[in-house]
């Protein structure tokens, strides 16, 4: 779950310049490969929960029980977050391009 939290934090990072924006896009483009690697860990996690369920393990709180489903759905959530963020980054890119054009005009004058 910690890895997915890091992914989400990086995806939702607000870029301060065009270089940061490019870095976020590169990160998002690499995400399908990273998520594929995480499937092994998710499968292990699901197996652990299955074993605990077989022993009728009672979790201390509902949040711990729900974590199984959160981890299982995390890759889909990350991809949805990427789709949403792409629109935001497109707008940010337009803003940075306008700033660069304005700076270019100021420099030429």
Order of helices and strands: HHH
| Low-pLDDT segments, ≥5 res | none
Shape: elongated
pLDDT averaged residue by residue: 89
Q: What portion of residues is helical?
A: over 70%
Let me know the number of strands.
0
Q: What does the main sheet amount to?
A: none
What structural category do the secondary elements indicate? mainly alpha
Count of helical stretches: 3
Radius of gyration: 20 Å
Quaternary assembly: single chain
How much of the sequence lies in strands comes to under 5%
Please characterize this protein's 3D structure.
With 109 residues, the chain is mostly helical. It has one domain (2-108). Helices cover 86% and strands 0% of the residues. It is built from three helices and no strands. The protein has helices at 2-11, 18-54, 62-108. Helix 1 (2-11) packs parallel to helix 3 and helix 2 runs antiparallel to helix 3 (62-108). The model has no long low-confidence stretch (mean pLDDT 89).
